[in-house]
Design brief:
Elements: E1 2-5, E2 13-16, E3 28-32, E4 38-43, E5 49-54, E6 62-65, E7 68-69, E8 81-84, E9 99-101, E10 107-112, E11 119-123, E12 130-134, E13 146-153, E14 159-165, H1 175-185, E15 187-191
Antiparallel strand pairs: 1-2, 1-8, 3-4, 4-5, 5-6, 7-10, 9-10, 10-11, 11-12, 13-14, 14-15
Length: 196
């Protein structure tokens, strides 16, 4: 479950018990806007993935969408650090940023509903303000979906990202080959956070 700390023993506590009981919610892929707001993925009681938002308070920790976010970097929000009490698995961390901030303060990220393909989503950290903003095309490779990754905020408020088919399993763990795969197979995209 999700805990929060200010770095002291007395300031370390459970933030939210999202799925009470032994199963837990397995929260992963934390991202902060740097202003005390946090997005992360957790497993609901029914076993489905969901996107959650938090302002660092128990009351302000809410489920914003029933989607599965693509893996993301673990980032600390403002002066507080959110963490997982059970510990992070190695798969929780990634070299590729999967969230970025638009000029209007919303987060842009890749997510999917059910077993569908990953699409472009945006969130203002509320349920009503979390929505799909673009359907991304399928890969020309058989049985491969395009995975949006490497989201980068630009000074003009837009976000740059690439899409590429999932890397072959034998490239995982070799950063040079993986970088070549994404640079040779990837497509460059830009968004201002609107559907147009």
């Amino acid at each position: 479950e999700v805990g929060i700390t200010d770095g002291s023993t007395d300031g370390t506590r459970l933030l939210a018990d999202l799925v009470p009981g032994a199963a837990g919610s397995n929260p992963t892929w934390f991202w902060s806007d740097g202003k005390g707001r946090l997005l992360f993925q957790a497993t609901s009681a029914d076993g489905a993935s969901a996107l959650w938002a938090s302002d660092g308070t128990t009351a302000g920790t809410i489920k914003v969408a029933d989607v599965e976010a693509a893996s993301a970097v673990h980032v600390m929000p403002s002066s507080m650090v959110a963490f997982v009490f059970e510990g992070l698995s190695q798969n929780s961390l990634s070299d590729y940023a999967q969230f970025a901030q638009l000029g209007d303060g919303r987060a842009v990220f890749a997510a999917r509903t059910g077993s569908g393909s990953f699409d472009l989503w945006a969130s203002d950290f509320t349920t009503n303000g979390t929505m799909r903003i673009a359907d991304l095309p399928e890969s020309s490779l058989a049985h491969q979906q395009l995975l949006p990754r490497s989201f980068t905020s630009l000074p003009d408020g837009r976000v740059l990202f690439i899409t590429a088919p999932a890397a072959p399993y034998d490239l995982i763990g070799n950063p040079e080959d993986l970088d070549f795969w994404y640079s040779s197979q990837g497509q460059l995209w830009i968004t201002d956070g609107t559907e147009a």
